[in-house]
Design a protein that fits this description.
Blueprint: E1 5-7, E2 10-12, E3 16-18, H1 27-35, E4 41-46, E5 59-62, E6 65-68, H2 77-87, E7 94-98, H3 103-114, E8 120-124, H4 140-150, E9 158-162, H5 168-180, E10 185-188, E11 192-196, E12 198-199, E13 204-205, E14 213-218, H6 222-236, E15 241-245, H7 251-260, E16 264-267, H8 269-274, H9 277-292, H10 298-301
Parallel strand pairs: 3-16, 4-7, 7-8, 8-9, 9-10, 10-15, 15-16
Antiparallel strand pairs: 1-2, 5-6, 6-14, 11-14, 12-13
Helix pairs in contact: 3-4, 5-6, 7-9
Bound molecules: succinic acid (SIN).
C-alpha cells in the first residue's frame, strides 16, 4: 500500500481514518469502523461522566457539508477504556479522544487512558458545543495549564485536537506550547465553531442548541483546514505528526492535505453521508493519484506544496 503512514510512532495501514464524531460512540459503531478500511479506530470524545448531549435537532446535513452541535454525547471515559480492550482483536490502532470540562478532568482521563489498550490519545481542546464552555485552545494560558498536568503521564503518544486559527500569531503561540510540552501529534481542525445556518422559509436556524450556533463541517471549511495544516507543518518543522481534518471527501482532497503537510487525514462528514465504504473509495483514489504522479510513498509527497 503506497499510502501507509505513521502518526508519531504508530503505523497506520493507510492515510485515512475516521474522525471523532457522531458515529463512533457505541461499541457497535466502533466495530463497523474496525471492520472497514479506516486505518485506525477513533473513538468519540469522552467526558468523565456519560452525557446525553444537546437537544435535537443537533446535526443537519447541508449542501456542502453539515452543521452540528452534538454537545459531546458519550458513555463516559471508563466505557471507552473497556471498548479499547474489546477492539484490540481487530489489530488496528485505537485512538482515544478526551474532552475535559475542567483541567482535572483532562488529567484523570489522560492518566487512565495511559494505562489502557489505546495506541494514541487525542486531547480535544476545541469542542465548541458545550453551552457556557469556551474552546480551551483559544486561551493559551488555559491550554498551558492543561498541558502541564497531562504531558508526563505515560508513554502513549499524546495529541491535541485544535480549533481553526485565523491569524499566524495564534498558530505560532500554539506551536510554541506544542514543542515545549513534547506533544506527539496534532489534529487540525475541529469543526469551525459557532457558525449560523438559517432556514429562510422558517426564519429559524437549522439546529436547536445554542440558538442555532454550531460547528461547521465539510467543504465549507476545507481551505481553513488546509491553511492550518500548512501553517503548523511549517512551524513544527516535522517534529510533530499532523492529522488533517476538514472537508475531505475524495482522494484529491486527501492529496491536497498531504502536500500541505498532513501525515494522515481523518474524515467525519463524508463518513456520515456515505458510510464506511468512503474509506475504501478515498484510499483507492489517493493511491491512483500517487501512482499517476510517480510518488512512491506518503513521505515522498508530504509537504511538497510549491509556491507561486
Ligand atoms: C460534539 O460532540 O459537540 C462534537 C465534538 C467536538 O466538536 O469536539
Amino acid at each position: 500500500m503506497l499510502s501507509k503512514t505513521k502518526i508519531s510512532k504508530i503505523e497506520l495501514a493507510s492515510y485515512i481514518c475516521n474522525a471523532s464524531g457522531p458515529s463512533d460512540s457505541i461499541l457497535e459503531e466502533l466495530e463497523i469502523i474496525a471492520k472497514s478500511d479506516s486505518s485506525a479506530i477513533m473513538m468519540k470524545s469522552c467526558t468523565i461522566k456519560p452525557r446525553i448531549g444537546n437537544p435535537e435537532p443537533r446535526y443537519v446535513h447541508l449542501p456542502l457539508g453539515s452543521i452540528q452541535s452534538m454537545g459531546l454525547p458519550n458513555l463516559g471515559y471508563q466505557k471507552y477504556i473497556r471498548f479499547a480492550s474489546q477492539l484490540k482483536k481487530y489489530n488496528k490502532p485505537i485512538i482515544a479522544s478526551v474532552a475535559g470540562l475542567s483541567i482535572e478532568d483532562y488529567r484523570v482521563m489522560v492518566e487512565a487512558f495511559q494505562k489502557s489498550e489505546v495506541n494514541l490519545i487525542e486531547v480535544n481542546l476545541s469542542c465548541p458545543n458545550v453551552e457556557g464552555k469556551s474552546q480551551v485552545a483559544y486561551d493559551f494560558e488555559q491550554t498551558e495549564k492543561v498541558l502541564r498536568v497531562i504531558s508526563n503521564l505515560g508513554d502513549i503518544p499524546l495529541g491535541l485536537k485544535l480549533p481553526a486559527y485565523f491569524d499566524f500569531i495564534h498558530q505560532k503561540q500554539m506551536a510554541q506550547l506544542i514543542l515545549k510540552y513534547n506533544i506527539s501529534f496534532i489534529t487540525c481542525i475541529n469543526s469551525v465553531g459557532n457558525t449560523l445556518f438559517i432556514d429562510p422559509e422558517k426564519e429559524m436556524p437549522v439546529i436547536k442548541p445554542k440558538k442555532g450556533f454550531g460547528g461547521l463541517c465539510g467543504d465549507y471549511i476545507k481551505p481553513i483546514a488546509l491553511a492550518n495544516v500548512r501553517a503548523f507543518y511549517e512551524l513544527l518543522d516535522d517534529k510533530v505528526s499532523i492529522f488533517g481534518v476538514g472537508g475531505i471527501k475524495s482522494g484529491l482532497d486527501a492529496f491536497e492535505f498531504l502536500i500541505a503537510g498532513a501525515d494522515a487525514v481523518q474524515v467525519a462528514t463524508v463518513f456520515e453521508k456515505e458510510g464506511e465504504s468512503c474509506f475504501t473509495r478515498i484510499n483507492q483514489e489517493l493511491e491512483e493519484i500517487l501512482k499517476r504522479k510517480n510518488y512512491n510513498s506518503i513521505q515522498e509527497a508530504k509537504g511538497r506544496l510549491k509556491h507561486l
